[in-house]
Amino acid sequence: MQAYPIKFAPILKEKIWGGEKLSNILNKKSDSKNIGESWEISGVEDNISMVSNGLYKGKSLNDLIKSHKSEFLGKKNIDTFGEHFPLLIKFLDAKTNLSVQVHPDDEMAKAHHNSFGKTEMWYIMNSDEDAEIVLGLKDNDLDKNVLGDINASNVNDIFNTEQVKQGDSYFIPAGKIHAIGAGVLAAEIQQTSDITYRVYDWDRTDVNGHQRDLHTEAAIKATKSFPSTGKSNYQLEADKTSNLVDCEYFTTNIFEVKLNQKRDYRNLDSFVIFMCVEGSAEVTIDNVTETVTMGETILIPANTDSVTFNSEGSKLLEVFIDKFVL
Asked: Which fold has domain 241-320?
């Protein structure tokens, strides 16, 4: 397989809570005023990403996996996931609150949906003043059955909220109640799963006056207690990576590039994804260069030996898989 910085065409999703930041800030091409998600790299059925540049332009993500297997994904990823891409990579714009929700773990997802669970993380790229997110219950000893009786008068007593700002990062394991709040633009990395149990949707209705379905019974079964908010404690170091999340499903580092840098991946048995969350950078593999700007994503095949980065100032999320304790 020829290694080069591979880009994919974004898959844009209209959402009841979406806005225009994906278009206005991240330059996604859409005339819609309620684009909530840009699926950057997806192996979800009926939402398979297509290569938009270079030698493999016009090929699907699944085409690359089938043709190149471990050269593309890494041997351990092929052994673990077969020909299924293990991550779903997104940018999200919440003009209004997302529903308060929870995702099943692997065991519950396999039993009820024949799927992997959904552990995820967020990196806050932009936020309005006083923007908040929901992270867990206010009281971990609270009877989970209260999730079946939430309304506008008691919602603030049930869920824990946190104010967020640019650069904040949060780990959201399966089973944790959560919601991105109004005014937040975020990068999201997650297991390949589109299973969501909606707990509360702020009593809103669609254009036809209908409320979206809740999944209370499943949410109660899926919800777990966690002692921490999951906020990452990291220090940026120019031209070095700082770890944000290190879990069995993915590792995510933040890489601040201010000079010409070369990174060696010969000992990593995994593809690597870079999400540009600030500025722009030139990314070069074997004399093939692509520019990645804020809001763009590239994938580096697993057979890549080294990558050179050149930037006057950018921040990239570096994502790969190397734990394999599934």
From this structure: Jelly Rolls (2.60.120)
